[in-house]
Amino acid sequence: MSANVLASKVKKTEFAGMGSMMQLLGVVLIVVGFGFGLVVAVFFGGIGLLLLVAGGVKANVLLCSECRGKVEKAAKVCPHCRARFNQLDSDQSTRDEGESWKKTMRGG
Ligand SMILES: [Zn+2]
Description:
Elements: E1 6-7, E2 9-13, H1 18-35, H2 38-58, E3 60-64, E4 70-71, E5 84-85, H3 98-106
Parallel strand pairs: 1-5
Antiparallel strand pairs: 2-3, 3-4
Helix pairs in contact: 1-2
The structure holds zinc ion (ZN).
């Protein structure tokens, strides 16, 4: 396994998975709440709306272009395949990490 693979973060909107599950649960809670009366509807509706919002946030994920694994927005290295991400949109250059990227320049 080479540790100097350069990868990029691929933005992906994920509809299948946790996000959509939470959104579905939110809608179900609102609908079920209305069946039980106004007070329950308001209570469950509040939780349902929270789940809808949380699910929508969860649906946006970043993927590693090398292994298609999920990565954190702030991650510099893929936790799955150890590929390094090129920081194109970061304005701060990391000077303390100079050694490893010199290796990348030499190897090839
Ligand atoms: Zn990866």
